[in-house]
Design brief:
Blueprint: H1 8-14, E1 15-18, E2 23-26, E3 39-40, E4 42-44, E5 47-52, E6 55-58, H2 59-68, E7 75-78, E8 91-94, H3 96-101, E9 116-119, E10 124-131, E11 134-141, H4 144-157
Antiparallel strand pairs: 1-2, 2-3, 4-5, 5-6, 7-8, 9-10, 10-11
Length: 162
């Protein structure tokens, strides 16, 4: 499921972690901008990634490996939602469904919220929530605030991270 070809020992030969800042530093010169003492990792999409043994690894997963001695067997979630904040205190193991609970709204979202959408065919706001691999319809509302309240109540009920 996850890239786990590199061992902790191999990673420690190349990288020096700072668990308080969430940054990795090269121990050896690797060519290009990767110099000994320089920060390791580059932005790929919305995550920092580091290339080791010809493979690209998310920095948060390498931080977990270096801190705990083994590759994580689940998803590593950024508690505060900031994908660039790889401090150890901001990382936790979660299931796929737990990880999806705190995802950001999609670009172009009319409401700016997950689970609240505008239905142009009914001219109402629709609220819904996904939990336990099911989609639960929370209602259709004329008032945006009521739709948001329905969604937020469901988030509390299903222990979403807010």
């Amino acid at each position: 499921m996850f890239n786990d070809d590199i061992t902790r020992e191999e990673a420690l030969q190349l990288l020096e972690p700072n668990f308080e800042t969430g940054k990795l530093y090269w121990k050896v010169r690797r060519g290009g901008p990767a110099v000994a003492g320089g920060e390791a990792g580059s932005l790929v999409g919305s995550y920092l990634k580091v290339k080791l043994k010809g493979k690209s690894y998310p920095v948060h997963r390498i931080m977990w490996l270096l801190a705990h001695g083994a590759h994580p067997d689940r998803f590593v979630d950024h508690i505060n939602g900031d994908r660039l904040d790889n401090r150890l205190c901001n990382l936790r193991l979660v299931t796929k469904s737990e990880n999806a609970k705190n995802r950001r709204p999609t670009k172009g979202s009319v409401s700016g919220l997950n689970g609240v959408v505008w239905r142009s065919d009914t001219h109402k706001w629709r609220a819904f929530i996904r939990w336990d691999n099911r989609l639960e319809h929370l209602g259709s509302f004329v008032d945006f605030f009521e739709a948001v309240c329905a969604r937020k109540s469901a988030e509390v009920r299903y222990a979403y991270i807010t």
